[in-house]
Amino acid sequence: xxxxxxxxxxxxxxxxxxxxxxxxxxxxxxxxxxxxxxxxxxxxxxxxxxxxxxxxxxxxxxxxxxxxxxxxxxxxxxxxxxxxxxxxxxxxxxxxxxxxxxxxxxxxxxxxxxxxxxxxxxxxxxxxxxxxxxxxxxxxxxxxxxxxxxxxxxxxxxxxxxxxxxxxxxxxxxxxxxxxxxxxxxxxxxxxxxxxxxxxxxxxxxxxxxxxxxxxxxxxxxxxxxxxxxxxxxxxxxxxxxxxxxxxxxxxxxxxxxxxxxxxxxxxxxxxxxxxxxxxxxxxxxxxxxxxxxxxxxxxxxxxxxxxxxxxxxxxxxxxxxxxxxxxxxxxxxxxxxxxxxxxxxxxxxxxxxxxxxxxxxxxxxxxxxxxxxxxxxxxxxxxxxxxxxxxxxxxxxxxxxxxxxxxxxxxxxxxxxxxxxxxxxxxxxxxxxxxxxxxxxxxxxxxxxxxxxxx
Length: 456
Description:
Elements: E1 8-11, H1 17-21, H2 29-33, E2 36-37, E3 43-44, H3 47-55, H4 60-63, H5 69-80, H6 87-100, H7 111-124, H8 130-136, E4 139-146, H9 153-159, E5 167-172, H10 175-178, H11 185-195, H12 204-220, E6 228-229, H13 240-251, H14 258-279, E7 283-287, E8 289-290, H15 295-301, E9 309-310, H16 316-328, E10 335-339, H17 345-352, E11 364-366, H18 376-389, H19 409-427, H20 435-453
Parallel strand pairs: 1-4, 4-5, 6-7, 7-10, 10-11
Antiparallel strand pairs: 2-3, 8-9
Helix pairs in contact: 11-12, 12-14, 13-14, 17-18, 18-19
């Protein structure tokens, strides 16, 4: 058994801070696990589970629709029993055991008993409200993902409430300001202008000033990291005049060339990198995802509903050029790199060593096995690659992005895999059986490295 994990730091894309502030209590397991449609036509829930159910031929009415919650839960139980080899089996049964004390595996035969047992606790146990779940999981910090235009009113309320012990920090997600080539860019620029009290952002210089103003606002509310979810990371330096010309075309709804698009994107990424360095904010770059690939379902349900896939991009060189340009100005921020394509592991592993610094151990990080790689084999391969090519002992560890408050058990899943991997190396004679050194490595990866990295 791995040693106990005292605290966790979790960066998650879902958590509505309002639910933390209001300390929501879920009525049943379907609500906390599956979510579904919201009144405004958006969808909220764990897309990992949705994809699994669709793979089992489950009708969408049971996945995200309006079927009774127990029927939806039963459809999930019927799916889970077929998911041998899928981490969802481990995740769900860990959650049932750790948060509810339910020790049987979830199957169609145990589903009714599990439903009744867990729902009674959800309705009555003070440790199973949203805040109770967070406290039970020993979470030290939650990083939400927030657009620069977000008002962050719930973060302000949380920060002002002394009864909330966990830090809930906004993370700066400026994708819409970077994706000049995508639909809705001009409308978004109007929204960004409004967020800083202006009628219009007339130039790239205005855009940068607006982003800086919002980043300062985020920083004042505890922002520790940015989060860029881009198709790929470009690097095509251009003059200020060229970037501004592309911006003016985009505001008019004109089609941009690839050169114009990447020139503008590079200008914004360089500017933001300098700002992150100035403010001590980590720059996270996520890339190589093809999003919303089912056009029919995207039209019906919108983004982030489980219709994405791995992309193949060869942008490691561009990332290196971006970091090199910032490094040349002494403006390279702490950076965490995630590719959804596991074929990029070795490339990222070798990239890290080009830009490390004595400012901080592991300043440039190979981020944890992300999304579709968030499996036992995916985690092992990411950590083996990092160990082979860099320093695993400085790794900042696990990231959770499941959109389920119960998903903190996935940190324990990661921790067990980490300890098993290290234990095998020790048993094979590949590392000394030195309790002090091993404890420092494991506790570092599970908490201490991230605590240092994110200035807790």
